[in-house]
Amino acid sequence: MIELFYDLVFTYMISQATSLIHHLHHGTILPISFLIFAVIVIVFINSWMFQSVFTNRYGSSSWADITFYFIDMMILLYMSNSFTNTSSKDLTTFFLAASLLSFTLFLQYLIVFFKSSNSNDKNTAKFFAAF
Fold first, then answer.
1. What is the full DSSP assignment across 10-71?
2. Burial class (CB in 10 A: 0-12, 13-18, 19+), 12
3. Are 75 and 101 in contact, with CB atoms under 8 Å apart?
4. Which residues pair with 25 in a beta bridge?
5. Which residues pair with 28 in a beta bridge?
6. What is the pLDDT of residues 8-46, one digit of tens each?
7. Phi and psi for 25 in degrees, rounded to 5?
8. What are 25-34's contacts with CB under 8 Å, separation 24+?
């Protein structure tokens, strides 16, 4: 059930990202605004896909999983409010938060690696934690 709230946070993030291309400049979207929008959406979708793969493979609704979900949701909410315009300062904050989100996923795979007794699960967790 917690994954549904996680998905709602991603929906909120995509709606926030559209604010980057909401304002037209002489009837067109500026190319830099569209490029930043595309990069932000790709980062969001990529983060969501990796977390979904982890949840579908190893998710157990344990307290550790729920705690990581809440931490990730806080990071995602911070990220979704960190790019109000296209300045590089705002994007630096966004990418630092995205790095923190990747780090929490790394920790989740590391926990699976050490807790699992199945060699296939260990190898998969090792592969995802290494990259």
1. HHHHHHHHGGGGTS-BTTB--HHHHHHHHHHHHHHHHHHHHHHHHHHHH----HHHHHHHHH
2. middle
3. yes
4. 28
5. 25
6. 888 888 888 887 777 767 778 778 878 888 888 898 888
7. -115, 105
8. 32/86, 33/86
CB burial string 44-58: b at 16+ within 10 A, e below: beebbebbeebbeeb
Extract the tokens encoding 18: 């559209």
CA atoms of 120 and 124, how far apart (whole Å): 6
Q: What's the burial of 84, exposed, middle or buried (CB within 10 Å: 0-12/13-18/19+)?
A: exposed
Please compute the mean of the pLDDT values over residues 78-93 and round it to a whole number.
70
Residue 120, helix vs strand vs coil: helix
